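User: structure tokens for this one?
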Amino acid sequence: QVQLVESGGRLVQTGDSLRLSCVASGRTFPNYAMAWFRQAPGKEREFVAAVGWSGDSTNYADSVKGRFIISRDNAKKTMSLQMNSLSPEDTATYYCALDITWRAVVFGTARYWGQGTQVTVSS
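Assistant:
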């Protein structure tokens, strides 16, 4: 079993920056892809960004491209999301996901998910 724990979410102001982290533990696979999703109240879960196991391949939603940066540290089994120029539209619960296939994490069908961390951006 794999456990994922997100952290770093908090209340910030418009224009601020914030860095989220996701730590994987348990029986993780040597090669795996990871992604960030977010969900606001009353809305569908939304893809944010994904990163391949090597860290070289990344994918971003148009809404965050140029503002957010996804990265990973395989030695520490962690994934980070650097969020810049935050706006109220970024307010949501952010979840990390992990799977052995790129397709699963990009399409939101990953096997493992974290509990989420709340990000609130005030205007």
